[in-house]
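Hi everyone,

Forwarding the result from last night's run.
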Amino acid sequence: MTLERVLVANRGEIALRVIEACRELGIDSIAAYSRADARMPYLKLASKSVCIGPADARRSYLSIPALISAAEVTGAQAVHPGYGFLSESPEFAEVVEEHGLIFVGPGRDVMRLVGDKLAARAAVAAAGVPVLPGERLPDGENDLKAAAERVGYPLLLKAVFGGGGRGMRLVEGPDGLRVAAQSAATEARKAFGDGSLYLERALLNPRHIEVQVLADREGRVAHLGTRDCSIQRRHQKLVEEAPAPNLDPALRARIHEAALRSAQAVGLTNLGTVEFLLDPRGTFYFIEINARIQVEHPITEVLYGTNLVREQLLLAAGLPLDPAVADASPSGHAIECRINAEDPKRHFLPSSGRLRVAELPGGHGIRVDTHLHHGMVVSPHYDSLLAKVIAWGRDREEARVRMVTALERFRVSGVSTTRPLVQEVVSHPAFCEGRTGTDFVDRLFSAG
């Protein structure tokens, strides 16, 4: 079918990306916005905009009735959820489909499967993809201790229905197990509406490697290479790069193959990301599948010369996977730094206020994905992401040097940002040599 009108069920940078992709394809875009976002300039680029509620996300961007109503009154055929908010909600995908609309992403059955981290682990393990030892959190204290012994310390407590580092706790021994489980369950319940947890063996300072995959309704699945997302704070990514550096070609090929098998095992359609942990010995393990567009997707786009949001829309319309995209080869190297409105010196406390923009970077090999503008009020109601700075180079060092210069030119005030931290990261000798793991930021702070 031909898509003619799409509701953009998100805000900020990703809403702008979806609107731009719709314009490229000649599709009308309907921008849903809360009253707090009523003055966002990107709304003027949409074919139409509709207010869905107050600033409180629970009554706007997280309100399924408000979004469905907006789609119906505007005559939208499809709903693009972006990332965050309801993008990984099988309930939202189900309601969208029940109202005769197209959910731009995997269908509700796939969403439900990959949203249950234990079920996803079981599905990919059955396909021969390696997973870390793990099992569901039992109820009784004695059963909990026994399960932890079977999994082995150190271990992670993780939310069954969640992600983004919320509902996750590292436990190094039995003494803090019960308290950590209670804390993680409370956080998971608040964040995802379900406090179910599972135990998983923890790797010490692994690398976080992921693979971008696309799949059409005919069963064809393709990958667009690896990304390294090891630079994190509180299990949330800060700096990403593609392709993942310092991987033996044979190892890279095995990771690609495992990603394709994982996607096929869960019946993935549209677009998703398969995530792995890589230990120092070169052994990798499946973590999860994110069945949505990722924040870090631009580094894959610049490497492969494609627009992944555009491909999402085409796949949602039922078109087959474009061979030019599926068979594309990467060119060069790309690095992305997230600029969040947070204060790294105060445990990444979110920062709000009126933004003053002095300069934003540009030039050859530099891309800035952002919705920010001078005078914008950075609200405490939403995610702290302000912008993504992407640098491309013919090789990794050229991309890194361009990123250093770009970050120097990213000059905003009025709120605290992560810019000084990511500047320090991309200039650090360990990053220059490509030898960082997931505890790099913690070590940086302990050393400073």
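The CA atoms of residues 8 and 49 lie 9 Å apart.

Cheers,
N.
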